[in-house]
Amino acid sequence: MSRFLFLSLPLIGHVNPMAAVAAALIRRGHAVQWAGSESFLRPLLGAGADIHPIPLRAHRGQAERGLDATRTRWAGYIVPHAKVTRKGVEAAVEAFRPDVLVVDQHAIAGAIVANARGLRWVSAAPTTMELTRPFRRGLPGVETWIHGRIAEAWTAAGQPGSPPHDLRFSPYGTIAFTAGALAGDPAGFPAPSESTVDLVGPSLAARESGPEFPMDWLDPGRRHVLVTMGTLSMDIAKDFYRRVDEALQPLGDRLQAIVVAPERTLDSVADHVLVRHRVPVLDLLPHLDAVVSHGGLNTVSEALVHGVPLVIAPIKGDQALNAAAVQAAGAGVRVSFDHVRPDDLRARLLHLLDDPAWAAAARAEGDRLLAAGGAEAAATILATHHHD
């Protein structure tokens, strides 16, 4: 039996895939502990999870876009998170004595502590952005700036000199929750001498006490569409939601739509549109015919695995990369988050619903993702690290 300490930013899209891996390790008899905000982690992980609490304020989300989003993500969130959590991570390591740390690429306090103590650790890549590092080629100055922020966190932790390597990639290996077309350009991956990248595809598992949903609202005689723009983008998506609502208005005889947004986001809601702040996405997916999304890696992967094509309106981060991959695979279409008109959005959505080739392509890409092995493959990789 080995002991694994999991560290993640307090973001649902980062925790969920890692939680599925943790569950797979526990089923195999290993001991797993998490270090982080108990108030955030407990609802996602369940009453039985072993959590070393590190008090944290909730993340406010992010209104910035483009390079501004990159700057605030690193300077305003990732580096401060590392500084605030490092001592808590050290305390968790002292108390739990892990054999291996499993570290979200953005939870760099885990990488710093593991390096300082000579512990084995493995990076977990929850997004395509850090995996392929597109700035290295397109905007090398931005990549250099990111390395400067990582060095800042390293120095703030009292470590001498510069980080021995890119702290987003463990020399013991990186597990990426993607595969196939969604994995992006492997030219951006670290060299094998830096970190071996294992593409395991989406890491899915039954979610703890998901939000309730009136499944009997779904009319089997109509098609079903989910609209979700991510938990961190709801505030900046209000105008997009309005255009989506206008696109959906005339389609009540053909479909029903579930819109994931804060209550009262839409001024008036038609009978065939249901607005909910949270929904059990994995429970709904078998009933869906299309997803309108921002293009977050988890949402895209989950849709493809269920053979559901997508209309993607990317906002920031790796979402444009995911949208391009889905469109190239014939499993969906990309539209402009800022400029798509309701009539164009309606036409794109109906095109996906009316031509079964889109769903077939989504299913084919989803099968490629599943073939990568998911949480069980990740657990197997991690279990080998204590015995290397």
From TrEMBL:
InterPro entries per the UniProt record, alphabetical: EryCIII-like_C, Glycosyltransferase_28, UDP_glucos_trans
Keywords, alphabetical: Signal, Transferase
Domain Erythromycin biosynthesis protein CIII-like C-terminal: 264-364
Name of the featured protein: Glycosyl transferase
Position of the signal peptide: 1-22
Organism: Dactylosporangium matsuzakiense
Any one GO BP annotation for this protein: antibiotic biosynthetic process
Gene Ontology molecular functions: hexosyltransferase activity; UDP-glycosyltransferase activity
CDD domains reported in the protein's UniProt record: GT1_Gtf-like
